[in-house]
Amino acid sequence: MKIVMIGTGYVGLVTGTCFSEFGYEVICVDKDNKKINNLENGILPIYEPGLEILVHKNYKNGKLKFSNSIEKSISDADAIFIAVGTPERRGDGHADLTYIHAAAKEIAPILKKYCIIITKSTVPVGTSLEIKNIIKKHNRNASFDVVSNPEFLREGSAIEDFMRPNRVIIGCENEKSKKIMENIYQPLNLIQTPILFTDLKSAELIKYASNAFLAMKISFINQMADLCESLNTDIHFISRGMGLDKRIGDKFLHPGPGYGGSCFPKDTIALSKIASDNNVDLSIINNVISYNADRKKSLIKKLNNILCNEMNGMSVAILGLSFKPGTDDMRESPSLDLVPSLAQNVKEVKVFDPIAMDEASKYIKNVYFANDIEDCIKNVDLTIILTEWTEFRTLSADYLSKFMKGNIVVDFRNALNPKNFRNKKFTLHQVGRGPFN
Q1: Which of 108, 110, 86 has its CA nearest to residue 99?
Q2: What's the pLDDT band for 92 if we cut at 50, 70, 90?
Q3: pTM (2 decimals)?
Q4: Residue 310's pLDDT is what?
């Protein structure tokens, strides 16, 4: 089985590497010559725990290769995965399919034998059929089938999500393509992974529906956290009590500053546009989109309320910049809203993230990029937890008091243990909970 992965971004590189770990011959193709050269020299374009080890291993044993030439790579391919970006289209919020269409056009004239073309990118309903029509238009004699196989990889847990997924969704049109996909995912049969075969459109919509539902859970628990603060009760009891109900589940019921990343923001907007184009009211998702955007923008207001509008002369430390732990991804991170606002309202902003410092420096200016936790919190009046990296979770009043000038901690992720702040000369503010001191 020879697999070609078009695109070496997050989805393409992780998927291609994991398929090579299954034992398949995989070629990852990208037009970015610098990226391909770096990959061949062991330099990855993204951070993902465990990925570098698998890339090095499978590149060394010849199962994983990299190329900047689609023509040379796909001539004898059995399966071609399209894993290029589908960012939000400027101006209207729809998914931008420019790279998808370009890949289909480039593939078409090169097809010499039967193969399947699989969409791995997140795409609107009907895109697989568009790919089919584009290829037919540019090569009437091409022998192929199109398949939709959406990804469900969580940044920071992508290797585990691929190797031990909750489910695999495959949309196809006939038994021939279905059989090939069964063979490709045969290694997952050993762990009895549920594989759901659907039509093309249903597979495409499942991805959007899943992400929108999870985004809705996050916004719901954030609104409940706001209510808990007003009622002087504890959101942790609420989320745990809800999560024990198997119909609800305990995932994505953790309050915070709002969701970010590469998927939830653009996928909820794209789903809303799909619904609008089809005259369907998705008011629930529309409200989630607007609420989440407002929540991230309101963080500065929340800080002002906590500090009684006395922020001007303060020195502030921000711990965590990426949108979640386990990744350096800054896309739609709450830090992109909060840090610039803080920089305009306080004397000094110091920031630290275990992984995302280089990536963050592309977007965040006029702040001090600290070398480590101690360097970040030294002599500051206020420390803010914005990403729940493991190394931040054990911070205590005793430790912070050795370096901080002030005694206020705002934990927007509820990562800290309140017991470590009780009966201390520190005040800990968390989301959906009263202050601890």
Answers
A1: 86
A2: confident
A3: 0.92
A4: 85
Structure-model confidence comparison of residues 93 and 59, the more confident one: 59
Specify if 437 maps to a domain: no
Alpha carbons 352 and 25: distance in angstroms, whole number = 40
- Indicate which CATH number applies to the domain containing 351: 3.40.50.720
Tally: H helices and E strands in the chain: 18, 14
Active site residue 263: yes
Question: If DSSP codes are grouped into helix, strand and coil, which group holds residue 209?
Answer: helix
Active-site residue identified among 18, 172, 228, 263: 263
**158 in the same domain as 186:** yes
CA distance linking residue 79 with residue 2, whole number of Å = 7
- How many structural domains compose the chain? 3
CA angle 60, 62, 65 (to 5 degrees): 95
Closest CA to 115 of 218, 199, 4: 4
Domain final residue, candidates 275, 296, 317: 296
Q: 186 and 241 share a domain? A: no
Cα 192 from chain centroid? 26
Q: Scanning the structure block, which residue is given the tokens 């399209």? A: 82
Q: Residues 235, 318, 262, CA angle at the centre, nearest 5°?
A: 75
Whether 436 has a pLDDT exceeding 80, the answer reads: no
Contacts of residue 175, Cβ cutoff 8 Å, sequence gap at least 6: none
Cα–Cα distance, 28 to 65 (Å, whole number): 6
Q: Which of 281, 296, 311 is the last residue of a domain?
A: 296
